[in-house]
Write a structure and sequence with these properties.
Elements lengths: L8 H21 L4 E6 L1 E14 L6 E14 H10 L3 E9 L2 H12 L3 E8 L5 E9 L6 E8 L7 H15 L4 E6 L7 H7 L5 E5 L11 E2 L3 H8 L5 H16 L3 E5 L5 E5 L4 E4 L13 H14 L4 H15 L10 H13 L2
Helix pairs in contact: 1-10, 2-8, 4-5, 8-9, 9-10
Length: about 350
């Protein structure tokens, strides 16, 4: 339900009701959208077990393994979200010459994702984040350790060029290119330049937005926007200034600042500013990966002919669903349709 304290609540309610048929139509068109995702691909591992006793070797628990779950993380979560929303998705990125990389490729292929653009980096491991959780008998499970596998080195120049060449070939054949930049070294200047060759490029990066000059749309969250502009964003005045500064710095067509429970603010180069309230402020259990879900839904919407406002509304709607689940999560067209209908009925 939309927060009634949102300043323009009634006007937004009315606009949402009027847009319902069009929004539902956009959702049906997601399946026709062809999207290329260029990203830092991560595998998230969740290992769970029961604590048997304290080790004699060191004051640490001995955990008997019960289960291992693997899901796409980082830029791979954006890829997976797009596929689960029905789009025709291809991915460009790097994995290591290791079992974790093969596991990630298999997850993608089982979801119908084209993995032709995933290249093997023999010098660097697949970025893997392993979370080990444990419980005693009849007690709650808690995370006790996280182990990260990654390299701070950049890919070899020849591999960067190989990846850039593939992206350049594909960019003109898809409706949109998504750059999911988690700072793990895939999105080098050569790769970025190729990604910007398409007609529509959506950028989700944690820092240095200026590297993606003239991209279509950027989607920083509030801390990322503050880091980029160099000052705190507190209140409408500084928010509007930040939107203006980011548009100037990136030369983008639009900037979307996501603000958690305060909703989202869309700044367009035309000067239009749109405020979109949070659709879910109560059933929030985990915001991990919610930004990837926003990018996935709004990209598919734009590729389906939606306006920027319509696309952001659908991105917001998708995020309101995944934050109700723990860990990186996805949603579906059917869940979004049901949520949209319920949202409008409760306006």
């Amino acid at each position: 339900m939309i927060d009634a304290n949102f300043p323009q609540a009634q006007r937004f309610h009315d606009r949402l009701r009027e847009a319902e048929p069009q929004l539902l139509q956009r959702l049906d068109q997601f399946r026709n959208a062809q999207i290329l995702v260029v990203g830092d691909l991560t595998l998230d591992e969740f290992i769970t077990g029961e604590v048997e006793r304290i080790s004699r070797e060191a004051p640490v628990p001995i955990i008997r393994h019960e289960s291992t779950r693997r899901v796409p993380g980082g830029g791979a979560n954006a890829v997976y979200n797009l596929a689960k929303l029905g789009g025709q998705i291809s991915v460009a990125g790097l994995v290591g010459n290791d079992e974790q990389g093969q596991a990630l490729i298999q997850i993608f292929q089982e979801a119908g994702i084209d993995t032709t653009g995933i290249f093997i980096d023999r010098d660097r491991p697949t970025v893997t984040k392993t979370r080990i959780s444990a419980h005693a008998r009849q007690s709650v499970t808690q995370q006790v350790l996280r182990l990260d596998r990654k390299s701070d080195a950049l890919p070899q120049p020849a591999l960067q060029q190989h990846l850039a060449d593939y992206i350049a070939q594909q960019a003109s054949t898809v409706a949109a290119v998504v750059c999911s930049d988690y700072g793990d070294g895939v999105l080098t200047p050569k790769v970025i330049q190729s990604a910007l060759n398409g007609d529509r490029t959506i950028v989700d990066t944690q820092s240095q937005l200026g590297r993606y000059q003239r991209a279509t749309l950027f989607t920083p969250n509030l801390p990322e926007a503050e880091l980029e502009v160099g000052y705190a964003i507190e209140g409408d005045r500084s928010l509007k200034q930040a939107g203006s500064d980011l548009l100037e710095r990136t030369q983008a067509q639009a900037i979307l600042i996501t603000r958690g429970g305060d909703g989202m603010t869309l700044f367009e180069r035309s000067g239009t500013i749109e405020q979109i309230p949070a659709f879910n402020r109560t059933d929030v259990f985990d915001v991990t990966g919610a930004g990837d879900t926003v990018v996935a839904a709004l990209t598919l919407a734009l590729a389906s002919g939606a306006s920027l406002w319509e696309a952001v509304v659908l991105g917001n709607l998708a995020a309101s669903l995944v934050v109700r689940q723990f860990g990186t999560a996805t949603t579906t067209i059917e869940e979004m349709k049901e949520a949209l209908t319920q949202l409008i009925a409760n306006c």
